[in-house]
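Entry 14. Structure prediction run on the chain below.
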Amino acid sequence: MMMEDFDKPVWQMTKGELLELFGVIPTKTIDNTPKEKRLMYGISGIAQLFNCSMTTANRIKKSGKIDKAISQCGRMITIDADLALELIKSK
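Output returned:
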């Protein structure tokens, strides 16, 4: 703080000046915990995710727009819900 700052009223101080006055050093907290994936299963999962009919869910899957979010092994379909929503928004 500079000398002329001592004559400044408290209500005119910035947040940084006020924290400096109290001797508090702000630190940023970084959340490094991995975000848990929200998974949906099957065509019914796609229909539930996009709030549409099973027929429309089939069309969405076959369109290829959410292929990066779909993992299929045999008849088992697993959808990463957050990624699927992001892919639909971007296209």
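The first helix runs from residue 15 to 22.
Filed with the rest of this week's runs.
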